[in-house]
Amino acid sequence: MKKLSAIFLLAMFSLAAAGQKKNNSLLWKISGNGLEKPSYLFGTIHMLCKEDAYLSENMVKAIREADRVYLELDMDNLFEMIGMMSKMKMKNDTTLKDLLSDEEYALTKAFFEKKKTVLPFSVLETYKPMVASSLLMESSMVCDQQVAMETLIMEEAKKNGKRIDGLETMAYQMSVFDSIPYSLQAKELYKSIADEEKSQKEGEKVMTEMMNAYREQDLEKLSALIASTDSDMRGFEDLLLYNRNRNWVAKLKTLLQEKALVIAVGAGHLPGEQGVIELLRKEGYKLTPVQNKREISREL
């Protein structure tokens, strides 16, 4: 679950990179197929150490020249964000106590209380276990200050007066978790904390590998790391990742013809035969990697 939780910072589950040409960039230009102006696709990570969080000059330029910015969720929608907490809860007032044995529940409760998470265990135990595990995983990051890449993108979009929209809703994202048995999610969560020391070391190792691959903008490496996940959750790829990719591309086929966009989604959604890059290519668009370094970049 530690590796699986790290994956949620990039996407929502595993993927394959078969046939993916190696191009180290998180920023991709979308052109062709009758587009008058290019759009741009960017791979985010939902939480990053502050010193590693930046927008390249080319990314800033892409936002400045875009008509609209799309994230996975409309994070600028106050009502959407306010409703987020309730949507994270399991249905029918289910809690971890209902899903674990007394011994497993006691160990899990003690673990969370020892961690002293932002939200008390009395709240976390009502959340879908995959969400609780993802929140716990962020504490494995070896840095004091963390930043969401989406926050930097939103700040730049607002500075340039660009409207922010979402490709899907929080209600939809959380409904995906409802499609996976809570008992299976709880089992994975418990397994990840049963051996605290081993779990912590594994979590730090996974996070370090993921962060290094993201810093290097190496989609192939990210894809390989994610595909190596050893979890009972394997088999839910379509539900957690591929279906969402297909839904987004179906929506983008219309949106791209209407406006120049910057589309920022988890980096794990980009590579692979069923990734957003290849799916857009199959729809007739040309996708080209764009330099995305912290230093001065060449013109788009």
Structure overview:
49% of the residues lie in helices and 11% in strands. Strand 1 (27-31) and strand 2 (39-44) form a beta hairpin. The protein has 300 residues and is an alpha/beta fold. It starts with a helix and ends in a 10-residue tail after the last strand. The longest helix has 22 residues, at 237-258. The chain has one domain (2-290). Strands 6-4-7-2-1-8 form a 6-stranded mixed sheet, sandwiched between helices. It has a two-stranded antiparallel ribbon with strand order 3-5. It has helices at 2-7, 57-65, 78-82, 84-87, 96-99, 102-115, 121-124, 129-137, 149-159, 170-178, 182-194, 196-215, 219-227, 237-258, 276-282; strands spanning 27-31, 39-44, 48-49, 68-71, 146-147, 163-166, 261-266, 286-290.
Topology:
Layout lengths: L1 H6 L19 E5 L7 E6 L3 E2 L7 H9 L2 E4 L6 H5 L1 H4 L8 H4 L2 H14 L5 H4 L4 H9 L8 E2 L1 H11 L3 E4 L3 H9 L3 H13 L1 H20 L3 H9 L9 H22 L2 E6 L9 H7 L3 E5 L10
Parallel strand pairs: 2-7, 4-6, 4-7
Antiparallel strand pairs: 1-2, 1-8, 3-5
Helix pairs in contact: 8-11, 12-13
In spatial order, strands of the major sheet run 6-4-7-2-1-8
Q: Roughly what is the average pLDDT, rounded to an integer?
A: 83
Radius of gyration: 19 Å
Give a count of the beta strands, DSSP E runs of length 2 or more.
Answer: 8
Element order: H for helix, E for strand: HEEEHEHHHHHHEHEHHHHHEHE
What percentage of the residues does DSSP assign to strands (E)? 5-15%
| Shape category | globular
Q: For the report, how would you describe the main beta sheet?
A: 6 strands, mixed
Query: Number of helical runs?
Result: 15
Q: Roughly how much helix do the residues carry, as a percent range?
A: 40-55%
Q: List low-confidence stretches.
A: 1-21
Q: Ends: how far apart?
A: 40 Å
Q: Please identify the structural class as seen in this structure.
A: alpha/beta
The total tally of domains equals 1
